[in-house]
Amino acid sequence: xxxxxxxxxxxxxxxxxxxxxxxxxxxxxxxxxxxxxxxxxxxxxxxxxxxxxxxxxxxxxxxxxxxxxxxxxxxxxxxxxxxxxxxxxxxxxxxxxxxxxxxxxxxxxxxxxxxxxxxxxxxxxxxxxxxxxxxxxxxxxxxxxxxxxxxxxxxxxxxxxxxxxxxxxxxxxxxxxxxxxxxxxxxxxxxxxxxxxxxxxxxxxxxxxxxxxxxxxxxxxxxxxxxxxxxxxxxxxxxxxxxxxxxxxxxxxxxxxxxxxxxxxxxxxxxxxxxxxxxxxxxxxxxxxxxxxxxxxxxxxxxxxxxxxxxxxxxxxxxxxxxxxxxxxxxxxxxxxxxxxxxxxxxxxxxxxxxxxxxxxxxxxxxxxxx
Length: 371
What we know:
Layout: H1 7-23, H2 26-34, H3 40-48, H4 67-79, H5 86-99, H6 102-114, E1 119-121, E2 138-142, E3 145-156, E4 163-170, E5 173-180, E6 186-192, E7 198-213, H7 216-252, E8 254-255, E9 258-259, H8 264-289, H9 295-324, H10 334-347, H11 352-361
Parallel strand pairs: 1-4
Antiparallel strand pairs: 2-3, 3-7, 4-5, 5-7, 6-7, 8-9
């Protein structure tokens, strides 16, 4: 199998990396954090680069690219710990293109592609933990469509988004709906999260909604799996930059008159960090390549990838802090922000322990050494 990136993918990587290095420096990021953790102007710049259109079908104004292209973009955004939730554009475009009626696609996909509309997934409920089959949100038919009553938590950029993809119970089964933030009965409460990005609590009280699909469980699983693949790619970028920062610091920091990078024990720890990074990178590739498989295989692959990524993120983040010493946890130093990002990514769409349980539950009868 050829794992080389195409010329177009390399060009995409170079373009996103240049924007991160020149247009999204640490000082700009700190300004966005101080303003609340989301900047519509920065999201617009991602749209100008074509990233919001990346996985939107060409028929709806997008570029029609696949999961590997999205992975390349997310890796580079991870290097700059970019706060704006580009992954939500990938989630929304894949779910709407795969499950929504043509009229809904024609209405929303061109706006997602242009960056005019930010559509985010709002699925997390307090009692659900990471389970996708637990949903207390209710939907009922109304004169002009449907009305939703729900409370959803940790909705990415929820008080800034233009619309939400919301799973809810309809006639005893999970369906997926699209709800506009400007609709009546919609209330949001925004806040900053651990990694300094913006999320919100979303409350719906008989809010008018558009039905995306009655097969909401399948659509929700696709949405979360798309998110997991994006998280894995983003984490690889964060870890790659974390390792680079650590090595740079070790070459500068001196103890007993010599750089600490010359100490063999510390060099071994950096080698272990690099090994964990490469294990994570390979499993991120695996997740993206499996995103188009049939649902059962796709779900198994995402759980496996998230277990390895979770282990790698924890190891790389903790070792980086240890090797930096006290400066590694100060807010003024960028390394601490990479550590916080890794901490949050490990819990996004299910932490390591949850996905270890998923891997175990999805093992087939032939699994084992002698299979």
